Automatic annotation (TrEMBL):
Gene3D superfamilies: YVTN repeat-like/Quinoprotein amine dehydrogenase. This is Uncharacterized protein. It comes from Micrurus lemniscatus lemniscatus. WD repeats lie at residues 91-130. Signal peptide: none annotated. One of its GO terms (biological process) is autophagosome assembly. Keywords: Repeat, WD repeat. GO terms for molecular function: ubiquitin-like ligase-substrate adaptor activity. PROSITE patterns: WD_REPEATS_1, WD_REPEATS_2, WD_REPEATS_REGION.
Length: 130
């Protein structure tokens, strides 16, 4: 069996996590990839949410990456503009904590969410009343 050296950085790191031994040039590439990812600087942005929710449970990003939906223990879903960090919508109505939220892949502003009581809600961000 012929061993083909991996050239994809993500696969190299994934292989390392699985305990795969890299050989020769692949080992050198693995060390370079690890060093590069270890020292990458990530800058966070603080987001101010209404009602001071106790904790954030889940995050989902819109397909165009401009909005972020977050679910919280206070049973609300907050829609935040990624660029500004500003909360632009508060989706209120679940009786229990939403455990899932997703943006429609092709219809902008359409969101589905579900909570522990079995309720699924469809939200249209273009409708002003929630």
């Amino acid at each position: 069996m012929k061993v083909v050296p991996e050239k994809n950085a993500v696969r190299i790191l994934w292989g390392r996590e699985r305990g795969t031994q890299a050989l020769g040039a692949q080992r050198l590439l693995q060390e370079l990839v690890e060093d590069k990812t270890r020292w990458m600087k990530w800058e966070g942005k603080k987001v101010e949410l209404p009602d001071s929710p106790r904790s954030t449970f889940l995050l989902a990003f819109s397909p165009d990456r401009t909005l972020m939906a977050s679910t919280h223990v206070n049973h609300n879903i907050y829609i935040t503009e990624v660029k500004t960090g500003k909360c632009v919508h508060s989706l209120v109505g679940h009786r229990r904590t939403p455990w899932c939220v997703t943006f429609h892949p092709t219809i902008p502003g359409l969101i589905a969410s579900g909570c522990l009581d079995g309720e699924v809600r469809i939200w249209d961000l273009h409708v002003s009343s929630f």
